Amino acid sequence: MAGTNPLAARIATIAPREGVGSGTRALRLLGRIGFHAMLAVVAFIALFPIAWLLLGSIQTIQELYRGMTIWPAVPQLQNYYIAWTKGGFSVYLPNSLFYSTVSMVAILLAASMAGYALARIEFPGRAAVIFLIVAIIIVPLPATFIAIYKLLVDIGLANTRLGYILVLVTGGLPIAIFILRGFFMRQPKELEDAAILDGCNAFDVYWRVMLPLARPGLAAVAVIEFLRLWNEYLLALVMFNSETLMPVQRGLTKFVSSDTPEQHILLAATAMAVLPVLILYTVAQKSIIQGIMEGAVKA
Amino acid sequence: MAVAAVPSARLRSRAARRAVTGYLFLLPALALMAVFTFYPFVQGLALSFQEWDGIGATSWVGFANYRRVMGDNIFWASLGNAGIFGVVGFVLGNILSLGMALAVNSMRRGSTFYRVAYYLPGVFSVVVVGMMFAWILQGSVGILNRALGAVGLEMLQRRWLTDPETALPSVALVYVWFHWGFGFLLFLAGLQGVPRELHEAASIDGAGAWGRFRYVTWPQLIPVTTIVSVLTLLGALQIFGTVQVLTNGGPGYLTEVPTLRVYKEGFQFHRFGVAAAMSVVFGAILIVLSLVQIWLGRRSGGEGE
């Protein structure tokens, strides 16, 4: 392969052959150590901030400010209790769970229906719809939150749960449709044909045959969407005034600005906002990472 | 022939029924996108020619909002800051993610741990990342300054987020820490698509590590590089939450970014028309930039073949 390229051939002749002398062997050992040290250092930098947050969240304020403590003398679980009760997290966390779950289910339903139609049903205008969805994914539209806020005010859905969920769902649709359509396209056609012969209508085929087949795709979309929904901040920032409606990310910045909590309580509050994500990532890291990598290859 | 030219009524009605079925399946998704994607897009354009305080009625003001945006030095400075985030995220982020992807891809065992660890920051929210680093970079008791003090580097200690010299670089580095894992995973996926036989063939031909990278791996990675570059640059330009939590644009306006500017213009100063005009200008810049980048990627892809 490289031989067909004249430049590559020249490089190849210049490039040193792999040596076997003892000097090179020592050098190679050094290189290997350096290689693994580099990998480990980068891993440390990636993991340190969350570890530091979690360790700090169970310390007393004195331990925290003295800065000598890694593991506290007595783990201070009451930091979490204070954030839960006084910080309003007993409201924010259930809110987030509700918004994320409802939106995720709605995205899976609407996107799988659309993805199925775009993969398997031939109708006029299908190419145009696909083009439209790809365009929404590709074209960067920054700061649409101003116009969305205006719309929500106009139709009376600002500062409501319904308004928040509807916008969240819409934001997740294009990519979910795109991924699920790819999934449906790769399923064998025979099962569908058999179901139609058995007298199933289009909805039955979708619901009873195709959805169960697409379960791995649905799971990947579900997890990745759940993370996005749980972490959403900007829309929640602009559309909620009532603390009782706020999701956890918005609640966290509200807590900081209105209560100016002490550092140890703030760390516990932040930990509560991130723990569900950590648990989900630990459990589903395989499908999250695979989903991102496969999505990249397809795009 | 005659059958194909004049489809029977039954065939036609079957096609019509299929069309109805197709659109019924699409209805929920299309209805939502029509109301919450397309309508706001049009309304955003309209709002950029109107005045609105967030509560009352709107009134048309012509190009007044755009004139105001043109004269808003802070907005243009914020674009410059976003450009710095973009360049740092692009250069540093891409070097880091490509380098680490090459390293992890060359491992025989243990690569799963590094994959999981390196992507971990990417699953956090902007608020959580902001809180974490506000604590790490805190001036008097933050761990970074303490660590510097412990190894005798007191002269490097700073109030990282409020010192005019370090605020912007600090936020930029936090941004890279937050997002490089995404490019890492994409590069890794691209590398796994490079057939091993190509490498073996090149080795037999006598290609060294650099030669193999330059003439075997790199041409295969160009499509991924284009995607990663477009996404990291566009993402960095649209940075919002991390900046809002870490510095809120300060000190002064040294770390102000366009999205934060739009937010303040609307929700703090109640000039929603000006905010809409800003987002239109900002959006136009981003679209041009992404088109240029895709075009550049195509061109260098052609050269590699």
Mean pLDDT of chain B: 87
Number of strands of chain A: 0
* CATH class wording of the largest domain in chain B: Mainly Alpha
Largest interface (CB within 8 Å) is between: A-B, 100 and 101 residues
CATH fold-type name of chain A: MetI-like fold
Q: Level of helix content of chain B?
A: over 70%
Order of helices and strands of chain A: HHHHHHHHHHHHHH
What is the distance, rounded to the nearest whole angstrom, between the alpha carbons of the first and last residues of chain B?
A: 46 Å
Relevant CATH superfamily of the largest domain in chain B: MetI-like
- State the low-pLDDT regions of chain B, or none: 1-5
Describe the oligomeric state of these chains in a short phrase: heterodimer
Counting helices, strands and paired strands, the structural category of chain A is mainly alpha
The level of helicity of chain A is over 70%
Tell me the domain tally of chain A.
Answer: 1
What's the CATH architecture of chain A?
Answer: Orthogonal Bundle
Question: What would you give as the CATH superfamily of chain A?
Answer: MetI-like
Enumerate the spans of chain A where pLDDT stays under 50 for 5 or more consecutive residues: 6-19
The neighbouring-strand order within the major sheet of chain B is 1-2
How would you characterize the overall build of this protein?
The complex is a heterodimer of chains A (299) and B (305). With 299 residues, chain A is an all-alpha fold. Chain A has a single domain, classed as Orthogonal Bundle (MetI-like fold), CATH 1.10.3720.10. Chain A is globular, with a radius of gyration of 26 Å. About 5% of the residues of chain A have low confidence. Chain B has 13 helices and two strands; from the N terminus they run ααββααααααααααα. Chain B folds into two domains: 30 residues; 233 residues, MetI-like fold. Chain B has 305 residues and is mainly alpha-helical. At the A-B interface, helix 1, helix 2, helix 5, helix 6 and helix 7 of A face helix 2, helix 4, helix 5, helix 6 and helix 8 of B.
